[in-house]
Specification:
The structure is a homodimer. Chain A is α/β, with parallel strands linked by helices. Chain A folds into 3 domains: 44 residues, Orthogonal Bundle (434 Repressor (Amino-terminal Domain)); 131 residues, Response regulator (Rossmann fold), CATH 3.40.50; 131 residues, 3-Layer(aba) Sandwich (Rossmann fold). Chain A is built from 12 helices and 12 strands. In chain A, strands 2-1-3-4-5-11 form a 6-stranded parallel β-sheet, sandwiched between helices. Chain A has a 6-stranded mixed β-sheet with strand order 7-6-8-9-10-12, sandwiched between helices. In chain A, helix 1 crosses helix 3, helix 5 packs parallel to helix 12 and helix 10 crosses helix 11. The first copy, chain A, is elongated, with a radius of gyration of 25 Å. At the A-B interface, helix 4, helix 5, strand 2, helix 6 and helix 7 of A face helix 4, helix 5, strand 2, helix 6 and helix 7 of B. Strand 2 of chain A pairs antiparallel with strand 2 of chain B. The structure holds a DNA duplex.
Chain lengths: 332, 332
DNA sequence: TTGTACGCGTTATCAG
DNA sequence: CTGATAACGCGTACAA
């Protein structure tokens, strides 16, 4: 059974509990001979160390809690996956929860996760309820926020700037001569990253003295076909649209496929820009101009930052900008 | 600080530790009046229950451990996400790890996860090392395997049959008159699901007395463009190929896009079938014929099975076949 | 190098 | 309905 305790191992090896513990934890402080006996006893009785008890005693769980909006979107999965790799190589495990873009869900999940006494916390979101922020502050553990480059993180932030990225994409379109530029994003009220992409779009227009036209701005749920739908709505409503900036590759690809179905030339009929540079962006016909976001690096660096902090190092920059890159392809 | 203990709450509320615990756990066994005082004290001091200590004392963690190959593929993410929802509604949390299709990694992760004493385990894989199986058996907790319909699960299995699905897709192609049918999958040695899809393909050929031609079978890494590459390799090597069965939509879409680039008609030049019915399958041009797999349902049902078992119910069928469905579209 | 004694913060048991 | 007390299994002083 899995009910073998450390004491059983100790008895079998003819040593005390502590020696077993030491063998497992810092084996250099134990004689080679006893070490072997202990290890033998461990495999002999099939001992599996109880990390719950260990955590209680040592006041360290070696667990990182992570909260993401969803796992159905590969972008979040990519970051988490990268972080999980880093953590595992350092003996940490991942407690993962999804909150579907709900601030209230996030708050309640933070509260219960904190009960598990994670050594650190990873949040793929930068807006939180006041209560959530307070809980995190009081917990006194390293926290890394991810997904947007905010000025005042709870503790640390590792990201790219959605504002700058969208602004830069819009300026690019303007530089290509497009003037009537539409913008499609998720619901800005519940997705602060898309809200900031919208702000970037607005800022670019403003700086170039292009009037903001609400008729050119749409909010859609996450799915390919809503990109197609958005494009049709926009062209129907405002036939003189010259370009569309989609705040996700998902919609941009959906729109591109709709154009393909209707045999519309892109960018002849309308130019299209995506966001994210997912793999399909460079496979689709025509290839998609988009903003490359460093999803994987975000996870890796975030994990590393947490580890540095847990190893007692004072983390120098609390705000890490991983940047973005406009990838120009055939759709513009 | 987050260092408030139950005793601090008790003192503040003028009751004993036990009463606080009871209020939190089974509030119906406590007077309405004391209950309110306790709850007030809890918010007053900002108490967050220590679930680590609770787990040690009660010998139940309310944690489900899940091991998946990767989170970068939305298919695995979709199942996990669905399960996480079910679990969370019942007060369970998810300990998640990725193993990148490595059996050795899986074994070592199972071993350390078991140390956290999860109440149950979810594995998105059906092949394991003997040691891994032994560990799981000895742990004496509910285990659900997912991803293929095997005959002898460690404990329970919730899935669809990859063998039958691929066989059925191949038979469909034969029924449409295609005779020279190619097959593209992941590396069969490290992916038992794709191995069984290949077996299904072989079985369909055999039953229809079509000789098996190794030149028509390819293994590729997971990425859109390897679908394009595979298609070109196959057509180059064996120009008379009439149809290709891809063991993932990813490659099928990649191949379709390559055809689009070269202005080849599909199914005129070659018929294409995918696997999975991801959202893009019905958006791509031409729409992709594919096998629909119930990823979300797999996660939901697997989670429910584990919960049923943890609630003491004897789970009737240990093997749950959620089926698949061939979706005929324009690519064949 | 190894062992003894105690504490970690909760739940379970049994009285009152 | 409430309270005292003993586990839970392992770390961490400190002592040997």
């Amino acid at each position: 059974m899995g009910q073998v305790r450390m004491e059983d191992v100790a008895r079998r090896a003819g040593v005390s509990k502590v020696t077993v513990s030491r063998t497992l934890h810092c084996s250099e402080k134990v004689t080679e001979k006893t070490r072997r006996r202990v290890l033998q006893a461990i495999t002999a009785v099939g001992y599996v160390k109880n990390l719950v008890a260990g955590s209680l005693a040592s006041n360290r769980t070696n667990v990182i809690a992570a909260i993401v909006p969803t796992l159905t979107n590969a972008a979040y999965g990519t970051s988490v996956h990268a972080m999980a790799e880093v953590l595992r190589q350092n003996g940490f495990h991942l407690l993962l929860g999804t909150v579907d873009f709900s601030l209230a869900e996030e708050e309640s999940l933070i509260a219960t996760f904190l009960g598990r006494r994670p050594d650190a916390m990873y949040l793929h979101a930068c807006r939180h309820t006041p209560a959530a922020r307070r809980l995190l502050r009081n917990a006194g553990i390293p926290v890394v926020e991810v997904g947007d480059l905010i000025r005042h993180p709870i503790d640390m932030v590792v990201s790219y700037s959605n504002f700058e990225a969208a602004k830069s994409a819009t300026i690019y379109l303007l530089s290509k001569g497009y003037r009537r530029i539409a913008f499609v994003s998720a619901f800005k009220r519940e997705n602060e990253r898309h809200f900031n992409r919208w702000r970037g779009y607005c800022a670019a227009l403003r700086e170039n003295e292009i009037p903001y036209d609400p008729a050119l701005v749409l909010e859609e749920p996450f799915a390919f076909h809503f990109g197609a739908e958005a494009l049709l709505t926009l062209l129907n409503r405002t036939p003189d649209i010259q370009a569309v900036l989609f705040a996700s590759d998902l919609w941009a690809v959906g729109a591109l496929l709709e154009c393909s179905r209707r045999r519309w030339s892109v960018p002849g009929r309308v130019a299209i820009v995506g966001f994210g540079d997912q793999e399909i962006a460079r496979e689709i016909v025509p290839q998609l101009t988009t903003v490359r976001l460093p999803f994987e690096e975000v996870g890796r660096v975030a994990g590393q930052k947490l580890l540095d902090r847990l190893h007692g190092q004072s983390v120098k920059p609390k705000i890490v900008d991983l940047g973005f890159k406009l990838i120009e392809r055939a759709s513009t």
